TrEMBL record:
This is Uncharacterized protein. Residues 192-354 form the RsdA/BaiN/AoA(So)-like insert domain. InterPro entries: BaiN-like, BaiN-like_dom_sf, FAD/NAD-bd_sf, RsdA/BaiN/AoA(So)-like_dom, RsdA/BaiN/AoA(So)_Rossmann. Keywords: FAD, Flavoprotein. NCBIfam families: aminoacetone oxidase family FAD-binding enzyme.
């Protein structure tokens, strides 16, 4: 019976522990926090977006951070296997918009509870509040680990699934990178991914809490169009967030790191042509013909936005509707279709959903997740320099890597 230690009870670690135990290994799962799956608990806004129904090529496109590294892993364990695994442990699933797969209960707690039950069923030795402080390596071969309690635990193999450096309260505090460096591995630059953005424009902060639906967001980097997406976003006290913002944040973070200028253009009425917007404005102004301009736009925009939009369009909101000129209408149409927001920086890495960067994939075997530098050392999950967009892509990547590492360890 092989003696396997897994460091980190997150998405990759839990699947690795279950898989290794099912294949006859003696498994010890170490977690530095007081409970397992803390980051799983907050994914999908607490609903846990387990995976996506997309095909492999679509998955790879949605994992801009070294997605091609996962081809072999996806061939071994992909979305269908993930759904089957969760169904078998008592988590029935459902498919929603965009192919996103969620538990039918809409509860990430259910997912983690069922995984924990499976660990106990398989007699996995789960040890909480146990941080690993050192990898014990002799002659380029790993023989065990040392814990914060100064214990030495021997192992035939160790799978590092300690997470990245985002949301440190969940256990992803970057300590896994320190251990990987101890073993001689290169850590690619850590950058926040799936992260809110900051802006120093005063009016942005006055819209704190305002959500916008069905808007088009265009990203410009050094005045060149970079991204164009459609959906929802929200203003905050520091800038902007929401699904649209998170989806473009990776590329923006990379650009800001290179000191490039970034600004967003928000089209508030993407379904309408300029002529249709103009016609809509005129209809509203006929309806409110005796009112001031600022009071005639209540059907067109959220109330909080009206004074800001008028100011940016250089229009006096106190003017009467009857005094509104065609030139001013064109200015209003333009700002409705191109509301500019400068981006100064991303929120800190600790607030990112995913860490971009990590253990260099060139130092790992993609078919086994084994280190090319140290025998008996494997990696899986966010600790590796692999990251994707929202929609179930990151969790599936973690599950697939965890599975492959466990299979490699037990079948070696």
């Amino acid at each position: 019976m092989k003696n396997i230690i897994i460091v980190g009870a997150g998405a990759a670690g839990l699947i690795a522990a279950i898989t290794a135990a099912q294949n006859g290994a003696k498994v010890t799962l170490l977690e530095q926090k007081d409970r397992i799956g803390r980051k799983l608990m907050i994914t999908g806004k607490g609903r846990c977006n387990i995976t996506n129904t997309a095909d492999k090529n679509t998955f790879i496109k949605n994992i801009p951070g070294n997605g091609k590294f996962l081809y072999s892993a996806f061939d071994s364990f992909f979305n269908e296997e993930t759904v089957e695994l969760f169904n078998n442990i008592g988590v029935p699933t459902k498919v929603e918009r965009g192919g996103r797969v969620f538990p039918q209960s809409d509860s990430a707690v259910d997912v983690v509870d069922r995984l924990k039950e499976k660990l106990y069923e398989l007699d996995v030795n789960l040890r909480l509040n146990t941080k690993v402080t050192k990898l014990i390596i002799k002659d380029a071969k790993l023989t065990g680990i040392q814990t914060i309690h100064n214990e030495i635990l021997q192992a035939d193999a160790v799978i590092m699934t300690a997470g990245g450096a985002s949301y440190p309260l969940t256990g992803s505090d970057g300590s896994g990178f320190v251990l990987a460096q101890q073993a001689g591995h290169t850590i690619k630059d850590l950058t926040p991914s799936l992260v809110p953005l900051e802006s120093d424009i005063p009016w942005v902060k006055t819209l704190q809490g305002l959500s916008l639906r069905n808007v088009r967001l265009t990203v410009f980097i050094d005045n060149k169009k970079s991204e164009d997406v459609f959906g929802e976003m929200m203003f905050t006290h520091f800038g902007v967030t929401g699904p649209l913002i998170l989806s473009v944040s990776r590329k923006i973070a990379m650009a800001l790191k290179k000191n490039k200028d970034v600004y967003l253009s928000i089209n508030l009425k993407p379904a309408l042509t300029p002529e249709q917007i103009d016609a809509r404005i005129q209809r509203d102004f006929i309806k409110y013909t005796k009112k001031q301009i600022k009071n005639a736009m209540v059907d067109l925009l959220p109330h909080k936005m009206i004074p800001i939009i008028l100011d940016l369009a250089y229009i006096d909101g106190n003017k009467q509707v009857n005094d509104f000129t065609k030139k001013e209408r064109m200015q209003l149409v333009e700002i409705l279709r191109n509301l500019p927001v400068d981006v100064t920086k991303t929120r800190p890495l600790a607030e990112a959903i995913v860490t971009c960067g990590g253990v260099n994939v060139k130092e790992l075997n993609p078919k086994t997740m084994q280190s090319k530098l140290i025998d008996n050392l494997y990696f899986a999950g966010e600790i590796i320099d692999v990251d994707g967009y929202t929609g179930g892509f990151n969790l599936q990547a973690a599950f697939s890597m965890g599975y492959v590492a466990a299979m490699a360890v037990t079948q070696e």
